[in-house]
Every structure is written in C-alpha cells, then in structure tokens.
Batch of 2 targets.
Target 1
Amino acid sequence: MKVHHETAGDGDVVVLSNSIGSTLRMWEPQVKPLVDNGFRVVRYDTRGHGKSDVPPGPYSIADLGGDVVELLDTLAVESAHFVGLSLGGMTGAWLGQHAPSRIRTLALTFTSVKPGNVEMWTGRARQVRAEGMGEIAEGSIGRWFTRDWISAHPELAAELQQMTATTPAEGYASCCEAIAGLDLTAALSTVSAPTLVISGADDAALPSSHGQVIADGIPDARFEVLGHAAHLGSYEQAERFTGLILEHVKGTR
Ligand SMILES: O=C(O)CC1=CCC(=O)O1
C-alpha cells in the first residue's frame, strides 16, 4: 500500500492528515510556519486520495490509522505530533486509542468521533461510484467555507473544488464508508496524548457540539471554537488555526 507523502524541515515530526475529498495540498498554509518553528512536517494523502493507492473499499478507520503507523515505520519515526482535520481527525482519534506509543500529541480539528448521518454517507458512496465526483465537488466548497470567504477568494475556492473533483471516486466512496457508522466515543477516556480539539463556529458539516464531545471525553483536552470558520478552518482561519497548533506542539517540547 503506497501512502504518498511529502516532508519538509527538520526536528520533531508533525504529521498532517487531510479531510475527505482533499489531498496533502490542503495543509499549504501550515507547512512554512511549522518548519520555521523547527518542526519536520510529514503530510500525506489518505488512502484513496491524491497520489496514494486506491485499494478497493470499503475502508475502515483502522485501515486509515494503520497506514499512519506504517508510514511512521517507513520513516523510522518512533512517535510524532498528529494533526488531523475532519476525516484526518477521526484517524487521529483512532491512533490515540490504538497506537498511543506512536503519538506525542493530538490535534483533532473540525471533526467528530461519531459523525452520524449514516444514510447520507452511504448514499454519497453510492452516488460517486455511480456518477463520479462532479456533484459532490460542487457541494463540498459550500460546506468547507463560508460564503464570505468564497466571495473573497474565488480562485482559491475553484482550485480547492478541483482537488475534490479529481479525487478517485472509489477512494472517496470507500472513505465515506469508513465515516458511516463510526463511533469512537467509548474509548475517548483512554487517550493519554495531550489533546487540542478545534471546531468551527460556522461548520454545518460537523458542528462544534461534536468537538465538545471529544473534548469532554479526553482527559484534560483543550477545546477551541474558531469564529468565521466553516469546515476547512485551517484555510479560512489559517493564522489562528496555525497559532493554536504551534502553541500545542511547542508546549510539549
Ligand atoms: O462533507 C464534507 O466534505 C465535510 C466532511 C465531513 C467529514 C469530512 O472529512 O469532511
């Protein structure tokens, strides 16, 4: 299983894990600040996305978490800071529960450990397998960003929409199946990594109540809600988001 990844910088490793329908490109605003602060950034394409392999689905969250453990093994990294957004955050929650020795800190952002909407996720999987990614890509941009941000950044919004449109349909569908029915709530209290949870005040896809559940369940987790941020708050509120991540990973140096 090839997991496409890119590394930058030197120092303690920070792994960045993307949302469904995106690639490692979504972390563009975070790479330079992390490198400038002395971290080695490892960003990767979740299986079924970008340039990673697209094995036939369905995938499970254990498959996605296992890919991260293998990636760390390949890079000979014993343990890393892990930052995941949305599907990436679900992967991070699984890692915190099942591979604690590999995780120094966790940032679980714009995410959920029990997304619900099972019919919606299985329906999306069916739709993209039957019709391709076009309609989903058109809808994704409106879930990822507020209207104001799209109006102010039309070219970037179009570029990010294209990222979803070019996601392999089988990969997207199989990740929908990893999300559908997911419930990592019961073992939240077993997570021992220092954890930062970030949600967006305008995130209709995974509202901040989902982040609150995670923060309530993980011992001593910090919870922040970013204003003027829909689902891809790492872009829409890049400065504030990156600042919180830096504060979190630097706190455990
Ligand atoms: O529907 C979307 O694109 C929002 C989303 C929910 C889980 C995820 O990874 O993305």
Target 2
Amino acid sequence: MRPKNHDDYQQDALIEFNRDITWRMFTGALIYVACWSCIVIPYNVLLGNIIPWELMWVCFAFLASSGVIRLSFVYDFYVKSKKDPHTNRLRLYVGLLANSATWSGVTAFIVYHPEFESMGHFIMVIFGILYAFISLNLCIDKVQLRIYLISYILPISIAYFAKQGSDNVYIACLLWASTVPVYRIAMMHHREYWSLFHQAYLLKDYSAKLAELARTDDLTGLMNQRSFNQIFEQEIQQAVESRQSYGLLLVDIDHFKMINDSYGHLTGDHCLSQIGLSLNRLIEDNIKVARYGGEEFVILLPNATEEKALALAETVRQNLSASVFRFTEREFTITVSVGVAVIYPQQRTDAQRLFQFADEAMYAAKAAGRNRVVLYQ
Ligand SMILES: Nc1nc2c(ncn2[C@@H]2O[C@H](COP(=O)(O)OP(=O)(O)OP(=O)(O)O)[C@@H](O)[C@H]2O)c(=O)[nH]1
C-alpha cells in the first residue's frame, strides 16, 4: 500500500472535521425539540396549562418540522462529504438558520404574549442556556456561528421591541449587545479547536514523513538496507509458509572506486542517484528494489522462477550498461555484475541463506570478468 503523503493527511483532517461538524449539527437539530418536549411542556403542565395545548402542539409542529428539514440537510451533507470532503456547507447553513430562527420565533411568541408572562420568564432562561451551549457547539465554524447568532437574536429582539416600553427596548438592546462577548468567547474556543486540530494533523504528517525518511535511502530514493531487511525477512517467511518460490538479485557496480577516484565522489553520488532513478522504473511494475549499501542494489522477486529472475537481471544489466551518465560536462558509462538466487518450496531455507546465495553468485560474476549475470546453482 502507498504510504500516506501530506495531501492524504490534509484530506483525512477534512474528513475528521466534516464528521465533527455533522455530529454537532445533528445534536443541534434535536436539542430544540427535546427542550420543548422535556422541559417547556412539563413546565406548562406545572403552571396549569397557561398555554393551551393546541398552541403547544402548533409550536411543537414548527420546531419538529424545522428540525426534520435541518436533519435531512445534515444527512445530505454527511453522505456527500463522505464522497467529496470539499463539498460545500450551504445546506447546513440553511438548516441551521431555519431551525434557530424557529426556536427563537416560538420563544418570541411566548415572550410577546401578555397572557403567557409567567412562562415567558421561564422560557427566556432556557433560551439563555441554549444560547451559550449552541454558540460553543458551533464555534468550530465561523460562518455557522455568525448565522446562528443573528437568526437566534433577531426574532426575540423584535418581540421585545414590539412589546414597547423602555425596559423591553432595553432588554432587546442588551440581547444584541450580548452577541459581542458570546462571539468573542466562542472565537477563543474556535482558535483553540483549530490549533489543536492542526497540531494533531501536523503530528501525523511529520511522523509519516519521519517514517518515510527512516525507510528510504537519501541518495537514490530507494528502500534502504534496514527497510529491505525487514521486508525481505517477512516475505521469505511468507514464501516458505505458502510454499512459493522466491528470487533475489544482487546488483553491484563494477569498479565503482575508479569512478570516484577519477571523477570525484560527487560524480559517484550522481551516478548512484541516476541508477536509483533507473531502478525506480521497476518499482512502477511493483517490484521492490533497495540500495543495500555502497554501490550494491537488491531486487526482490516473490514467486519467481529462475527464468524470470535471470531475464530481469539481464534486462537490468543491459539497461544500466547502455546508459550514459553525465555530470559537470563529464560523460561515462558503467557496467554491473548481477548475482541471482532463487529458492523453491522444497528447499526449506531462510532469508540469510538466500542473500548469501545471491552474494556468492554476484562474486562469481565479478570473478568471471564482471558485466554479467550469474545464477547460483
Ligand atoms: N560516491 C560514492 N561512493 C561510494 C558510496 N558508497 C560507497 N562508495 C564507494 O564505492 C567504492 C566501492 O569500492 P569497492 O568495494 O572496491 O568495489 P569496486 O571499486 O566497485 O570494485 P568491484 O566491486 O570489485 O567491481 C568505494 O570506493 C566506496 O568509497 C557513496 O555513497 N557515494
């Protein structure tokens, strides 16, 4: 599986945020109906039904329908954001506007009605508690917070203005004034939320980058020796257990010391990184390649036959020897010696021994004059 990169982690963070906002909106959509059914209705009963039942039901119907509309928008967002995390949040905003304005409208109706005065004070307490709770609940999204504050305060303040009298106008003004500290406190939480959110995301991203660095060889971008050892051990174990063959190619550059001595270490480094790029093409075909160290490379071939391993070794040898390396106006070519070893299910062997076989084959290729492929027999 491809290791995750920066964009993947950013995508993950957005998915996490969408999940969070969906959950907050979901609870928000239920809270008004729950408050009405579990707090306001019982209190009305305690007061001796000062608000007639028919009116209670009408208010309930309004709250429930705006809640259902909002929930359907929340669900729609949830489904769409799963497919595309960048999907816009417009419907969430519309649902929030409808739902909050309905609750505030219902509260305004009770507050405005002189006959429901005793209920009016009580419902304003509930209104205030929800005001604080929902502002903090929505603080993760600035736009929603603003929509909420306006849609929540507007109907109730209109009711107080309409009631007239200096005390009511004063309350209405006070309600608008309260949006400033509420907004500021919510924004403090907003910043805290996002800073923690970004830290968590950056931490994941950095640890993935560190893991990637620990796995890769700097010069060639190939797997390094440590990573190779781990994978090689695991794969050999799997091959033995599932009774499959396994091949290993050991590619060693011939007379690499001469390149360093004649053209300098920088040229040698450049040559190694170019070889890395060449071998990278094998990775595109899902073949694992590693720089074992110095001027030695290894190629892992699960489920390989001798023919397949030899054919690949020959292709690698020919490609590398046909390449012309250029660095600071110098041109040169190289050759490689390749040792090939393949184990079969009946040979119960281990990673170390297979490596040793390939190594012996590679030294045999060197001894036989270099620039050749030798199979361990
Ligand atoms: N530029 C550079 N050289 C390296 C690096 N790692 C190892 N070498 C050089 O690779 C050379 C390996 O030399 P030897 O082991 O003698 O092998 P060789 O010259 O390739 O000769 P044969 O393998 O026998 O064909 C040494 O000169 C090392 O300094 C590296 O990362 N960069």
